[in-house]
């Protein structure tokens, strides 16, 4: 993969059908990647952070950054592989993964550039325009590190698998052979936060794919252990600064269109 005589930076567009629970294990690329869920949603883990991407978001992954991609439900990942962003583009300065907005124009440009019959000059202009249009968008990632102590870690892993579980620390303690006070101390020292906040982050992380897919708030909040929608929305706003609706809100690609 290299630049041609027109200074083309975008060298390959790949499309990957991902059935539910598909995982592309941790790997790296020698070139930059823009990972986009052209249908469904994607979860991308990189740099100890996790992004949940609806069709209106993509993630710029700089060359050499280890990452993995997961599809919780049937999705299509459209990847743009970029050898060198042109000077003056924001992407050229991004040394870490960066979420970007996928506008209608960007979605149409991907379709335009995937035409194998496109002449080199028009392709060069299209690629430069697409890369120039990439703009960062705030996406708070909700990291919940696992504590190292085996007792606290057993509790943490159980909650990751079933975030709706409402057991108290004392109840968990009886299951893993520790007092509730001991577990509280282990979460604070091992995860860097209280057990209550850690469980909140796990629940919100579990909710993100369903939110990105547009599922009703009432269903999502119940599925991750909240008795009311208002309690879920309050927790979401407290951690991200915005409501669940605002977290993913942006201009959507045209209905019925998908990058090939």
Overall pLDDT? 87
How many distinct helices? Answer: 9
Number of domains: 2
- According to CATH, the fold-level topology of the largest domain is Jelly Rolls
State the name of the first-level CATH class of the largest domain: Mainly Beta
Choose one word for the global shape: elongated
User: Kindly, what is the distance between the CA atoms of the first and last residues, rounded to a whole number of angstroms?
Assistant: 20 Å
Strand order of the largest sheet: 1-8-3-6-9
Major sheet characteristics: 5 strands, antiparallel
Low-confidence runs (pLDDT<50, min 5 residues)? 1-9, 251-260
Output the radius of gyration.
Answer: 21 Å
Beta-strand level of the residues, as a percent range?
15-25%
What structural class results from the helix and strand content? alpha+beta
Total beta strands = 9
């Amino acid at each position: 993969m290299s630049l041609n005589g027109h200074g083309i930076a975008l060298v390959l567009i790949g499309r990957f059908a991902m059935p539910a629970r598909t995982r592309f294990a941790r790997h790296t690329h020698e070139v930059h990647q823009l990972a986009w869920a052209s249908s469904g949603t994607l979860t991308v883990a990189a740099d100890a952070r996790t992004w949940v991407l609806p069709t209106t978001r993509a993630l710029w992954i700089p060359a050499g950054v280890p990452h993995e991609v997961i599809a919780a439900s049937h999705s299509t990942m459209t990847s743009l592989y970029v050898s060198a962003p042109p000077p003056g583009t924001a992407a050229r300065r991004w040394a870490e993964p960066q979420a970007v907005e996928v506008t209608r124009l960007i979605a149409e440009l991907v379709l335009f550039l995937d035409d194998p019959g496109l002449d080199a000059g028009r392709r060069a202009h299209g690629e430069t325009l697409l890369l120039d249009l990439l703009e960062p968008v705030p996406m708070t990632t909700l990291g919940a590190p696992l504590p190292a102590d085996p007792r606290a870690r057993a509790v943490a892993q159980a909650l990751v698998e079933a975030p709706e579980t409402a057991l108290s620390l004392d109840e968990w303690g009886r299951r893993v052979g520790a007092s509730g006070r001991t577990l509280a101390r282990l979460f604070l020292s091992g995860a860097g936060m209280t057990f209550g906040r850690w469980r909140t982050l796990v629940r919100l992380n579990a909710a993100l794919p369903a939110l990105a897919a547009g599922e009703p708030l009432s269903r999502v909040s119940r599925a991750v252990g909240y008795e009311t929608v208002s309690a879920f929305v309050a927790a979401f706003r407290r951690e991200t600064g915005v409501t669940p609706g605002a977290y993913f809100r942006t201009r959507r690609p045209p209905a019925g269109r998908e990058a090939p």
